[in-house]
């Protein structure tokens, strides 16, 4: 059951990020149809994230109480309605409203998915499980790019968006009718106890926890990396066409190659982290140093494309940079859940929603930087890349220095989970 659920969460992330990234892949026809400037296109990219952080926290907190199945089912049905609603878009204001609503209802998916996977997998497999979910995001954002580009070319961008709505509907039925909420047989009793605990949260202590070096610098590292996530989603297709001089078809395959290789890289980093944790039970070595080192190395590789403009090196460097810097995405939620395991959904939602604040800033900032360069688009893109590289490298270093997860909490939680898993072994 746990692996089937993980597969569905993977495909849910595929749909989630395909919904995000298809707007970038359709940038050229959309900008031409509505006669948009770069600043207006930056507004479209940013609008997706205006409500995303808030609804991510609210949706995940709701999932802690009512269960992941109900929340994920609701958001998936809403995605379906919104993607079909694209057929009625006829002007920029409607396009922005659509992106705001889509972002609002897609906000809860990632934190709820991480928290749901956390219920089903032991500590020694959490990195792998989360990397599979993150991998679904990369597949949706980049690997399926050639398919999405083909759909846009054949049917037009509106029909392509509507087909993603069909995928959401299929996922909804599979998840609702073929999965369970919790691996523990006595789920109802466990859930009642959890509800009582949720009502007794101490706000002062909770805020103090969020301000601790571990929570703060994990969130900032996630935030910095998410600026890169948004850039890859909104600006990479245009960058490869306008700066690297690729055709639309070459751009699609280039995006897919970057996606495939990066998934392999950050999955390997997560597996290395899990392996080291299994061997030494040391959070600093297995989680923090591995991820911090990967982020710093990835930022250097990202900056290198400013100095080496060869298209082949650009693709290679982006593959490595994306794979290494993205390692915080699967490991970050594990660290946050460890700090307050009974509020797993809420903790991951704060992490992902705080990171997604970058989604509000990044598209507008990139569009502004490109505009500052005047007619020299290459210089504008290079400045945006340098900014991201410095930001990710700096916060990767701070993450490595200041994040010190509580080993005692993890050991105590592992014992509880092992007892729970032994009781529910046949069921699972």
From TrEMBL:
Segments forming domain Major facilitator superfamily (MFS) profile: 5-408
Protein keywords: Membrane, Transmembrane, Transmembrane helix, Transport
Protein's UniProt name: MFS transporter
Q: Which organism is it from?
A: Bacillus seohaeanensis
Q: Which Pfam families match?
A: MFS_1
Location(s), subcellular: Cell membrane
Membrane topology value: Multi-pass membrane protein
Residues that span the membrane, as ranges: 48-64, 71-90, 96-115, 127-153, 159-179, 206-232, 252-276, 288-306, 312-329, 350-371, 383-403
């Amino acid at each position: 059951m746990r692996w089937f659920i993980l597969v569905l969460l993977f495909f849910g992330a595929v749909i989630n990020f395909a919904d995000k990234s298809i707007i970038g892949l359709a940038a050229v026809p959309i900008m031409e149809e509505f006669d948009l400037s770069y600043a207006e296109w930056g507004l479209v990219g940013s609008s997706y994230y205006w409500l995303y952080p808030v609804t991510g926290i609210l949706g995940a907190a709701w999932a802690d109480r009512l269960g992941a199945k109900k929340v994920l089912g609701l958001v998936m049905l809403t995605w379906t309605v919104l993607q079909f609603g694209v057929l009625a878009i006829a002007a920029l204001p409607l396009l922005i409203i659509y992106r705001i609503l889509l972002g609002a209802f897609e906000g809860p998916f990632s934190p709820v998915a991480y928290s749901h996977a956390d219920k089903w997998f032991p500590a020694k497999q959490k990195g792998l499980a989360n990397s599979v979910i993150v991998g679904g995001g990369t597949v949706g954002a980049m690997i399926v790019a050639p398919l999405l580009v083909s759909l846009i070319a054949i049917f037009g961008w509106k029909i392509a968006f509507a087909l993603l709505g069909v995928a959401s509907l299929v996922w909804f039925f599979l998840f609702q009718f073929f999965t369970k909420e919790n691996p523990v047989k006595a789920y109802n009793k466990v859930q009642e106890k959890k509800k009582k605990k949720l009502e007794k949260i101490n706000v002062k202590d909770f805020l103090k926890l969020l301000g601790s070096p571990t929570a703060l610098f994990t969130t900032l590292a996630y935030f910095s990396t998410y600026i890169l996530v948004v850039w890859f989603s909104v600006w990479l297709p245009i960058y490869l066409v306008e700066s690297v001089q690729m055709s639309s078809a070459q751009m699609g395959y280039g995006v897919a190659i970057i996606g495939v290789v990066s998934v392999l890289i950050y999955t390997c980093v997560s597996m290395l982290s899990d392996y080291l944790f299994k061997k030494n039970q040391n959070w600093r070595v297995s989680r923090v140093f591995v991820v911090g080192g990967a982020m710093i190395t990835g930022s250097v590789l990202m900056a290198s494309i400013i100095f080496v403009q060869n298209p082949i090196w650009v693709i290679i460097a982006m593959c490595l940079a994306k794979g290494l810097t993205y390692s915080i995405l699967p490991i970050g939620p594990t660290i946050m859940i460890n700090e307050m395991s009974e509020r797993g959904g809420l903790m991951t939602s704060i992490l992902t929603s705080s990171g997604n604040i970058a989604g509000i800033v990044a598209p507008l900032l990139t569009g502004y930087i490109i505009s500052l360069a005047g007619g020299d688009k290459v210089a504008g893109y290079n400045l945006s890349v340098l900014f991201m590289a410095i930001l990710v490298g700096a916060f990767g270093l701070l993450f490595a220095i200041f994040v010190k997860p509580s080993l005692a909490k993890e050991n105590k939680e592992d014992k509880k989970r092992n007892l729970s898993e032994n009781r529910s072994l046949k069921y699972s």
